[in-house]
Amino acid sequence: MIEKRILVVDDDESICLLLKSALVTRGYEVFTADNPSQALQILDNNTVLVIFIDLNLPEMNGVELCRKIIKRNPLTIAYAITGDASHFELAECKGAGFEDYFKKPARLLDIFNAAERAFEKLERWKKS
Fold first, then answer.
1. Four-residue CA torsion sign, 17, 57, 85, 8
2. Cα angle vertex 42, ends 37, 44, to 5°?
3. Rounded to an integer, what distance in angstroms lies between the CA atom of residue 47 and that of residue 2?
4. Is the pLDDT of residue 88 over 60?
């Protein structure tokens, strides 16, 4: 069985705390990072295959971070979270490997559903 671990990467601490507390109530183990370096360090030390990434981050943007993560582990399912989604950004997100995106403020039900679908997909892949 796939370990139900999620990483939330957002430089807004309140969003990290909100998503962590909400996802923990659904039975997920949740890691948070407020910058890309911290996110990559968490991934060096833990197997996490479902990630929610803010697009506007310090050091490197979420698209660049997603590319690095997917290159390290192509099975990763990543979701973009953004306060401002343009068509150009959305196309760039898809090209970077994001599964989907959420516009802030994202509804928790949508986040829950995305996480559930991601783990179902990972379980199917594992079985085949």
1. negative
2. 95
3. 10
4. no
Q: Which CATH architecture has domain 5-127?
A: 3-Layer(aba) Sandwich (3.40)
Report how far apart the first and last C-alpha atoms of the chain are (Å, whole number): 13
The pTM is what?
Answer: 0.94
- Report DSSP state, residue 105: S
Contacts of 106 (CB under 8 A, 6+ apart): 81
pLDDT digits (tens, 9 = 90+) for 21-55: 999 999 999 999 999 999 999 999 999 999 999 99
Percent of the chain at pLDDT above 90? 77
At residue 59, φ and ψ (nearest 5 deg) are: 75, -60
CA dist 18 to 21, 87, 91, Å?
5, 27, 28
Left (φ > 0), alpha (ψ -120 to 50) or beta: where does 15 sit?
alpha
